[in-house]
Write a structure and sequence with these properties.
The protein is α/β, with parallel strands linked by helices and about 325 residues long. The chain contains twelve helices and 13 strands. Bound molecules: zinc ion. The site of zinc ion has 6 residues, from loops.
Length: about 325
């Protein structure tokens, strides 16, 4: 058993309480490899932001859970080396789908886990979530639960249709399970293809496609039921058109992809939403930079020469999200 505190990691409790009070949200960035992790830590250190490093089940399968765990431990040391005396880094399991997986991650040094029972009947979701919370809290590990279903495909997570969270269920769920935060469904979705052009309207000012707005009425109703309780948004990439264009003009073939407009995420960050998950935008940034380098320098075969620019572009993206969308810059508890 490895306790996350021995690795220099923190759980989400204090940072979420501060974020809800302060009207900003903590970034939760998924990572699968070294360049991504370096970019996340560099961005968090430069902006003095707390940060959540997320590992999905797919990432565990891809990169190996032991390696990822040591990378997270290394991330703390790296942040200190970059000049951050008291980094606030959470190692979080994204979309845990069983008690065993959550238990295993907690024993490996994770400081936070998500148990996603949202596809189960309500009572089974309650029972599974409660069981994970009881185990996790023995070690002061925080737990995220989910009510409502998000559409889209990302790693192992997939659902054809979304179902908004029912505000009338949230008090009962939180009370019965003891979860520390709750992911809700208000119209965000997983993956890069969140909306088809047919589902969007054209913004008369910019000519850009605008997806249907998030269900802020559902968010407000949840906040009314659970004042001050930490709320989480998954599937919150904005799918920057610039990166899609770079990919497509350098041999890529992405279909028209539309994400969540950043203004809407900015608005959500100011509410009880205190954790926003971003994965696809970083995938797009990385792919755009790699494709561009490969197209411009076809003789290049040193991976550092195309992964380096990819890392730079991801870092730029993470800093932009922290400063201009989530507002978590300069929010470390100990400065
Ligand atoms: Zn998710």
């Amino acid at each position: 058993m490895v306790n996350y505190k021995d690795l220099g990691l923190v759980n989400t409790r204090a940072m979420f309480a501060k974020a809800v009070r302060g009207g900003y949200a903590i970034p939760a960035f998924n990572f699968n490899n070294m360049e991504q992790m370096q970019a996340i830590i560099m961005a968090a250190v430069e902006t003095k932001s707390p940060v959540i490093l997320q590992i999905s089940k797919g990432a565990r399968n891809y990169a190996n859970q032991t390696l990822l765990r040591y990378m997270a431990e290394g991330a703390v040391a790296y942040a200190k080396e970059l000049g951050c005396e008291h980094p606030e880094i959470v190692l979080h399991l994204d979309h845990g789908d069983s008690y065993e997986l959550c238990k295993n991650c907690i024993e490996m040094g994770f400081s936070s886990v998500m148990i996603d029972g949202s596809a189960l009947p309500y009572d089974e979701n309650v029972a599974l979530t409660k069981k994970v919370v009881e185990f996790a809290h023995q070690y002061d590990v925080t737990v995220e639960g989910e009510l409502g279903v998000l559409a889209g495909v990302e790693d192992e997570v997939s659902a054809a249709e979304s179902h908004y969270t029912k505000p009338e269920e949230v008090i009962d769920f939180v009370t019965k399970t003891g979860v520390d935060s709750l992911a809700i469904s208000i119209g965000t979705s997983h993956g890069a293809y969140k909306f088809t052009p047919e589902q969007c309207t054209v913004d008369p000012k910019t000519g850009r496609l605008l997806p249907p707005p998030l269900a802020f009425d559902v968010l407000e109703a949840v906040e009314e039921k659970l004042p001050g309780f930490p709320i989480v948004l998954h599937g919150s990439s904005s799918v920057p058109q610039e990166d899609v264009d770079i990919i497509n003009s350098n041999g890529g073939c992405l279909k028209a992809a539309v994400g969540i407009p950043e203004e809407q995420l900015r608005k959500a960050s100011k509410s009880a939403v205190c954790k926003i998950n971003i994965d696809s935008d970083s995938r797009l940034a990385m792919t755009a930079a790699i494709r561009k380098t490969m197209a411009e320098k076809p003789a290049e075969f040193d991976p550092r020469k195309y992964l380096g620019p990819a890392r730079d572009r991801m870092k730029e993206l993470y800093m932009h999200k922290i400063i201009n969308v989530l507002g978590s810059n300069d929010q470390l508890i100990e400065g």
